């Protein structure tokens, strides 16, 4: 008996969404996009307010381009690919707006649904 893949959450049809490039699980609604001006470990990345179908690893302190942050790697719940990270804590006051937000690298996501609607 084979089991079909099921995702934790499906974003509404005909809404612009971003999906995992590896398994097509929905990751974020375009309305949750905060910025396209971020840099991940593998190139350009987007900052999102919220995401779906994503698991979170343990937080650790890392020195990023904008200073010291406590971040936790995030991964696709379906295929387990590491996608980026979640900002748990920013140590500099100018970076506090990132706390609780998510970075997903462009190398791991694809535009899906509704971009032509």
From TrEMBL:
Pfam families: Yippee-Mis18. The keyword Zinc applies. Residues 16-113 form the Yippee domain. One of its GO terms (molecular function) is metal ion binding. The keyword Transmembrane helix does not apply. Keywords: Metal-binding, Zinc. Belongs to the yippee family. This is Protein yippee-like. The gene is ypel2a.
